[in-house]
Amino acid sequence: MFRVMLRMEIKPGMEHDFEQVWLKIGDAVTSHPACLGQWLSRSLEDGGYYIVSDWVDEPRFREFETSARHLEHRRQLHPYRSGGTMTTMEVVAYLPGEAGSAGAVSHDAWEAAR
């Protein structure tokens, strides 16, 4: 499995709008046949955002990375962004936790908790 982690710095005051747009346009990424899933997290330390996506392999991610749908996705998020970085990695091991999928939170439950 191939993992991509983006760190995004969002312009002050635009965080809520960024989150809403990210959710609205996320299927541009997750509907790609090689995408295994994607997560959006906000840092409790510095307020930056981390976007993690998992892919079946690097070549299929790179194919997506240069696609028109990815460029459009980036274009829609660009107005909120003030900086960021990208890190890629190969997942070499996974140890499931005791809670397993019980620890997963659905989008609807997450929205209700906000």
From TrEMBL:
Pfam families: ABM
GO molecular function: monooxygenase activity
Domain of life: Bacteria
Keyword Oxidoreductase applies: yes
UniProt keyword annotations, A-Z: Monooxygenase, Oxidoreductase
PROSITE patterns: ABM (PS51725)
Residues covered by the ABM domain: 2-89
Coiled coil residues, start to end: none
SUPFAM superfamilies in alphabetical order: Dimeric alpha+beta barrel (SSF54909)
Name the record gives this protein: Heme-degrading monooxygenase HmoA
Protein's organism: Nonomuraea wenchangensis
